[in-house]
Design brief:
- This protein is of the alpha/beta class.
- The protein is built from 10 helices and 6 strands.
- Strands 3-2-1-4-5-6 form a 6-stranded mixed β-sheet, covered by helices on one side.
- Helix 8 runs parallel beside helix 9.
- The longest helix is centred in the last third of the chain and has 20 residues.
- The N terminus is likely disordered.
């Protein structure tokens, strides 16, 4: 995820920040400037400050707190929809569709499947067999897409591109076109609700926009 501070951000946005946060924002107030997760500041072509920043420079810079990072409008590009389910939603949908899980509690799934760290890539990928299994009808997929947007909004993300493979959700009587339309409904509903807020309408808060990246899986055969 990148923290984007654009010269076109609404001026009213800074009104909700305290003095220290405004100071931190000022160091980023450069056209089309990206702040990477390790605090290196760069443009598309060159670093604006040394990377990584020397300790002396870091000590004189305003602190980018977790609270400020949440407030800053951000983009998140190429986010996997099937890797972004809320665990309680996964459990509820699995029970509804009779899908077997290693555990039916949040704590159990965090211990067995969705861990803090993984031994290797295959272990990490095991969780996707459960998330893709519950993405099996229009209602479930629309809900997952909608909640995905809500979670991004809560993190301060204002532009997101979600990636998914429609073929993984195709079932008898549930086509690839219907999969895409279900995701689209969830994204549009979340954006419509967020952008109707007074703070968005008066320009204090940037709008929320969500787009889709459709992944075509080459190992699928047949007509879709």
């Amino acid at each position: 995820m990148k923290f984007l501070v654009d010269a076109q951000l609404p001026k009213q946005f800074a009104n909700g920040l305290n003095e220290a946060e405004q100071d931190a924002l000022h160091i980023l107030d450069l056209p089309r400037t990206n702040l990477t997760a390790d605090n290196g500041i760069r443009t598309k072509t060159k670093w604006l400050l040394p990377h990584p920043l020397p300790t002396k420079v870091k000590s004189t810079m305003p602190v980018l707190t977790d609270e400020l990072i949440r407030k800053l409008p951000k983009t998140d590009l190429h986010v996997h929809l099937d890797g972004s389910l809320r665990i309680p939603t996964l459990i509820e949908l699995a029970i509804q569709h009779n899908i077997k899980l290693p555990s039916y509690t949040v704590e159990g799934l965090r211990e067995l499947v969705f861990k803090e760290t993984y031994q290797n890539l295959p272990e990490y990928l095991e969780g996707f067999q459960y998330t893709t299994a519950v993405m099996c009808d229009a209602e479930a997929i629309e809900r997952i897409a909608y909640e995905f947007c809500l979670d991004n909004q809560a993190e301060g993300v204002r532009y997101v591109e979600v990636r998914f493979a429609p073929q993984l959700s195709v079932r008898d009587g549930f086509t690839m076109t219907e999969v895409v339309k279900a995701v689209d409904r969830g994204l549009r509903r979340a954006a419509r609700e967020f952008n109707a807020r007074p703070e968005v309408r008066d320009g204090t808060e940037p709008k929320f926009v969500a787009g889709m990246i459709l992944c075509a899986m080459r190992y699928f055969e047949g007509t879709w």
